[in-house]
Amino acid sequence: MAPQANLVKAGLEGFALLEEYYGRPRKAKRQNFHQGSHQVSKKQPDINSKMVAEIYGGIVITEYKANRYGTGLKH
Q1: How far apart are CA 49 and CA 20, in angstroms?
Q2: What Cα–Cα distance (Å) separates residue 39 from each residue in 15, 42, 56?
Q3: Residue 10: which residues within 8 A CB-CB, separation 6 or more?
Q4: DSSP code, position 16
Q5: What is the pTM (predicted TM-score) of this model?
Q6: Which CA distances in Å does 52 have to 9, 25, 26, 27?
């Protein structure tokens, strides 16, 4: 097995080759999902998976698992 220093050197060389070929990766723009008091946003309607399936013509698969009382509660 190769010594730790050799593995680190090989890894650094490998990433340097990738950056040379593809360019340095860009930082993704951060999206701020926090809605502070200074931001005005329109309230989106609540939608669930059943509504989405109806809108887009899909289906919803729901699994039920029998519990010890014999009722099929959603799992």
Answers
A1: 44
A2: 41, 10, 31
A3: 2
A4: H
A5: 0.32
A6: 51, 35, 34, 33
Give how far Cα 47 sits from Cα of 51, 55, 62, Å. Answer: 6, 11, 17
Check if the beta carbon of residue 13 is closer than 8 Å to that of residue 5.
Answer: no
Domain boundaries, the chain: 48-75
DSSP 8-state class, residue 38 = T
Considering only CA atoms, which of 60, 38, 41 is closest in space to residue 49? 60
Instruction: Name the phi and psi angles at 25, rounded to 5.
Output: -65, 140
56's tokens: 């887009």
Q: How far apart are CA 48 and CA 58, in angstroms?
A: 13
Bridge partners for 73 per DSSP? 65
Minimal CA–CA distance to 44: which of 35, 56, 31?
35
Kindly report, residue by residue over 20-61, the tens digit of the pLDDT.
888 877 777 776 666 555 555 677 778 888 888 999 999 888
